[in-house]
Specification:
Shape: elongated
Number of domains: 1
Order of helices and strands: HHHH
Mean pLDDT: 82
Structural class: mainly alpha
Strand content: under 5%
Length: 116
Amino acid sequence: MLDDIHIAVMIITVLVIGFVVLNAIYEYRKTPGTSIITAFSNSLVILWTRFRIAVTAAVAFLASAASYLNLPGVSTFLHTYATPVTVAALLMGADVVTELARRRTLPTPPTIPPQG
């Protein structure tokens, strides 16, 4: 039963990574211009989010593959460095980058001329 879960996680993560990468390639080739940001609707937030999805899926794949293939060295490495404190720090850092990227892409609000 546990092996089936690991296989399912590995298949799902490979599909997610494949979607993110293939979609980025497709949009980049379809969109005129040389900037990778243009492939993500000129949104740094979307680019950053897709990057986070790909990295998270890769880590999930590694964890499931290590358990399925019975590789204690990889499992030990992941459990050593993926402590709750480390994960929380990484998530906070990712949220800060997301916030900065979102602020960069927000339109400037119009100024209201003074009345009177």
